[in-house]
């Protein structure tokens, strides 16, 4: 670990982070309401039909992001794509106020399309602001990740609460307004031109290898995370009923996000002043992930109230794991890619996650019947990948990542 000299975050970090936080608040708040709206008094859909539509809605985002990235990198520019995406998303949220299935489908289509333009392009533009000071990439993307988690947490609380209390239309309107406000910081930000970015000093083979590792690692992490989450949710339901801790029922579902917030702040401060390689951080992430699942494994299938603290410790280690992996993946892609095609690369990075989740999803019936099996697979998978990352870090221990 070396001390970082003469590198600072800029106001663009603040602008992009605020924009992303508001956009995520809009999106996750709306998402918290949309299934309830579909099965409610206006549309009166069957729950299975509503969940099917919701599934198509979330799955379509992967492909819309590729389309948005292509427009951003090749046709209209990243900044224009962010602004257009934000406007389309806002119109989509407002369209949900139309009390019919036409309003529903139109709204969901526009939200998917707008998010596709917004997401890969804002991540790309954010990353480009750090390409002349790559030792700050990890802390920068952790700030960005903190903004995402803050936005989703506050959006679910605010829009979810107001929508259920005062009517779904109020929630959808607030979602659309937040989306429009999220565009304002983008107008204030300065886009980094390609001629202002220092040329990538790494060999083609090294760049391709590191990008491929990042693609595979991110897919496996979220796939194993999802497999093990079946047991996590099972414990959450049981412990929330028997725990004597004064934790409100609605907060049990957000405990992981609550842990992520302080850990993110610690990581941001540490990584702003001290640099260690991105692959070393990934290694730690998988080690902490294996520890987290290992702690869950010692909790009996039918937990007691005394197991609550053990469960909370597991969530703490899982949050540490997530912070060492989720923002670092984008940091690696930004550092080793051609910045001209960064949004496209970022959009493609969502594919391995979706593909691995689909493959693991084929076994969901067995895992729901036996949640401990998913946990065992998670422990073994995290451990194997962690050992593999240790080997990769050792092989590259003499390599100095000093592309400032």
TrEMBL record:
InterPro entries: MFS_trans_sf, MFS_Transporters, POT_fam, PTR2_symporter_CS. One of its GO terms (cellular component) is plasma membrane. Keywords: Cell membrane, Membrane, Nucleotidyltransferase, Transferase, Transmembrane, Transmembrane helix, Transport. PROSITE patterns: PTR2_2. Its main location: membrane. It is found in: Cell membrane; Membrane. It is an enzyme of class 2 (transferase). GO terms for molecular function: glucose-1-phosphate adenylyltransferase activity; transmembrane transporter activity. It is a multi-pass membrane protein. One of its GO terms (biological process) is oligopeptide transport. Its EC number is 2.7.7.27. This is Putative Glucose-1-phosphate adenylyltransferase. It comes from Tenacibaculum jejuense.
């Amino acid at each position: 670990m070396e001390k970082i000299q003469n590198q600072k975050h800029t106001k663009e970090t603040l602008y992009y982070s605020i924009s992303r936080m508001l956009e995520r608040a809009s999106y996750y708040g709306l998402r918290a309401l949309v299934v309830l709206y579909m099965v409610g008094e206006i549309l009166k859909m069957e729950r299975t039909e509503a969940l099917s539509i919701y599934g198509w809605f979330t799955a379509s985002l992967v492909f819309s992001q590729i389309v948005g990235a292509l427009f951003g990198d090749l046709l209209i520019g990243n900044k224009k794509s962010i602004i257009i995406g934000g406007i389309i998303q806002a119109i989509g949220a407002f369209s949900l106020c139309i009390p019919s299935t036409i309003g529903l489908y139109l709204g969901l289509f526009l939200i998917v399309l707008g998010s596709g333009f917004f997401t890969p392009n804002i991540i790309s533009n954010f990353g480009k602001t750090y390409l002349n000071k790559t030792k700050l990439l990890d802390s920068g993307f952790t700030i960005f990740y903190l903004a995402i988690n803050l936005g989703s947490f506050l959006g679910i609380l605010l829009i979810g609460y107001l929508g259920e209390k005062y009517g779904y239309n109020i929630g959808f309107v607030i979602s659309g307004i937040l989306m429009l406000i999220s565009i304002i910081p983008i107008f204030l930000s300065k886009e980094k031109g390609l001629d202002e970015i220092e040329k990538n000093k790494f060999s083609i083979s090294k760049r391709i290898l590191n990008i491929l590792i990042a693609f595979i690692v991110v897919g496996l992490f979220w796939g194993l995370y999802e497999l093990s989450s079946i047991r996590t949710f099972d414990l959450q339901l049981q412990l929330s009923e028997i725990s004597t801790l004064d934790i409100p029922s609605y907060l049990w579902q957000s405990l992981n996000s609550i842990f992520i917030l302080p850990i993110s702040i610690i990581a941001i401060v540490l990584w702003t002043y001290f640099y260690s390689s991105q692959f070393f951080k990934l290694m730690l992430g998988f080690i902490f992930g294996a520890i987290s699942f290992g702690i869950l494994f010692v909790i009996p299938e039918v937990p007691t109230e005394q197991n609550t603290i053990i469960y909370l410790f597991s969530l703490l280690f899982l949050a540490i794991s997530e912070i060492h992996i989720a923002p670092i993946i984008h940091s690696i892609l930004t550092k080793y890619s051609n910045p001209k095609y960064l949004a496209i690369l970022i959009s493609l990075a969502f594919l391995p996650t979706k593909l691995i989740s689909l493959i693991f999803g084929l076994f969901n019936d067995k895992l729901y019947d036996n949640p401990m099996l998913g946990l065992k697979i998670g422990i073994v998978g995290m451990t194997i990948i962690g050992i593999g990352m240790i080997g990769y870090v050792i092989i590259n221990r003499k390599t100095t990542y000093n592309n400032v």
